[in-house]
């Protein structure tokens, strides 16, 4: 005798929607990292207004988006009126 098994009536997408509804109001920190530089503590203490610190990325390199410190996407930096903005290129 074969037992009839019914599928879960709720599609996986609706479970995700329910989860988002439960936590969607929680604020998180999203940062855009444009590059990094390795330096010494001595050099940091020598810095003064007007000094330039070169980063390891070229001007048109994608920026890394960090969600609470964890890389979650890559994006390109752009201007949105008089503010910075990012266009998402890839989500991790």
Automatic annotation (TrEMBL):
<keyword id="KW-1003">Cell membrane</keyword>
<dbReference type="InterPro" id="IPR001543">
    <property type="entry name" value="FliN-like_C"/>
</dbReference>
<protein>
    <recommendedName>
        <fullName>Flagellar motor switch protein FliN</fullName>
    </recommendedName>
</protein>
<dbReference type="InterPro" id="IPR001172">
    <property type="entry name" value="FliN_T3SS_HrcQb"/>
</dbReference>
<dbReference type="GO" id="GO:0005886">
    <property type="term" value="C:plasma membrane"/>
</dbReference>
<keyword id="KW-0145">Chemotaxis</keyword>
<keyword id="KW-0283">Flagellar rotation</keyword>
<keyword id="KW-0472">Membrane</keyword>
<dbReference type="GO" id="GO:0009425">
    <property type="term" value="C:bacterial-type flagellum basal body"/>
</dbReference>
<dbReference type="InterPro" id="IPR051469">
    <property type="entry name" value="FliN/MopA/SpaO"/>
</dbReference>
<dbReference type="GO" id="GO:0006935">
    <property type="term" value="P:chemotaxis"/>
</dbReference>
<dbReference type="GO" id="GO:0003774">
    <property type="term" value="F:cytoskeletal motor activity"/>
</dbReference>
<comment type="similarity">
    <text>Belongs to the FliN/MopA/SpaO family.</text>
</comment>
<dbReference type="InterPro" id="IPR036429">
    <property type="entry name" value="SpoA-like_sf"/>
</dbReference>
<dbReference type="GO" id="GO:0071973">
    <property type="term" value="P:bacterial-type flagellum-dependent cell motility"/>
</dbReference>
<feature type="domain" description="Flagellar motor switch protein FliN-like C-terminal">
    <location>
        <begin position="22"/>
        <end position="91"/>
    </location>
</feature>
<dbReference type="Pfam" id="PF01052">
    <property type="entry name" value="FliMN_C"/>
</dbReference>
């Amino acid at each position: 005798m074969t037992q009839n098994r019914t599928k879960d009536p709720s599609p996986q997408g609706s479970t995700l929607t329910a989860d988002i509804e439960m936590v969607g109001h929680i604020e998180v920190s999203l940062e855009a990292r444009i590059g990094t530089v390795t330096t010494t503590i001595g050099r940091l203490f020598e810095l003064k207004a007007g000094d330039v610190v070169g980063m390891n990325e070229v001007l048109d390199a994608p920026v890394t988006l960090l969600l609470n410190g964890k890389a979650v996407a890559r994006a390109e930096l752009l201007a949105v009126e008089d503010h910075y903005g990012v266009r998402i290129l890839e989500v991790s």
